[in-house]
UniProtKB/TrEMBL annotation:
Organism: Polyrhizophydium stewartii
Record's bilayer topology term: Multi-pass membrane protein
Molecular function as annotated in GO: 2-acylglycerol O-acyltransferase activity
The keyword Transmembrane belongs to this UniProt entry's keyword annotation: yes
Keyword terms, alphabetized: Acyltransferase, Endoplasmic reticulum, Glycerol metabolism, Lipid biosynthesis, Lipid metabolism, Membrane, Transferase, Transmembrane, Transmembrane helix
Location within or outside the cell: Endoplasmic reticulum membrane
EC number: 2.3.1.20
Main location: endoplasmic reticulum
Protein name from the UniProt record: diacylglycerol O-acyltransferase
Amino acid sequence: MDLVLEKRKGFVRLALTTGASLLPVIGFGENELYERLRHPLFDPLHKAAYYTARMAAPLFVGRFMTPIPFRTPLTTVFGPPIYVDKVETPTCEQVDALHKQYLAALQRLYDQHKDEFHAHRRQEMRFVA
């Protein structure tokens, strides 16, 4: 489970400027809904599209090689909210501190529920850029 949150801080800045609370949320089972098609012809195209557009657009299949997802349980867990004081113009240090607090809350939430809802994992949750 790779979460692309390492450099994504816009939602934290928005929470600071509006005073909105942040709610840590993790969905378990989403990665098992589909399988990515892996083929020597597709992989270079996929990597080139990712580096050009900065978003992944993999080819995927589900049940019976169709877009129908595999049958797998989906579970969403919520952590306690992180209350945020409103700041008109937040500094980079404030944004970084709140972002670090949010990532730590997500990590605690994952560690608390991983054995129950992600027991068949191949790797632990990672924060990636």
